[in-house]
Task: structure prediction
Amino acid sequence: MEIKRLVEQLCFTYDTRDPFELCRSFGIFTLRSPLIDIRGFYQREAGVSIIHIAEGLSEWEDRFVCAHELGHCFLHPGLNRVFLDIGTLTETSRLETDADEFACRLLFGVPPELSGFELSYRQISECLNIPEDRVRERIERLLK
Result:
């Protein structure tokens, strides 16, 4: 299913853009874990879905990581992909880009320049504690 349509359907059906609420609705466990060099990852074992989120992240980083990993859950259900720290990546795979798009559409509606959304690249950068050029690069990649 197209990512945009999937996110719109989830938001309409569950009346929320909160990734943690969506996790609760779908019985997906979220755990804070002492992770090193990654912010989070999605795991499915014995029919149980778990999103691990690194301890000590800001509220916005928590929400973005949860939304990103939720994207993997919906878009790539058979895979246990590791979400690599986006502040250090120079190139992302299609799966990571899909999960980023899912997270941006869930949390921000759509990428900023598509709707005149009130958050700028700088503001998103500050919220997520990610360099502004990385935010711009990733969102522009979503638009291609």
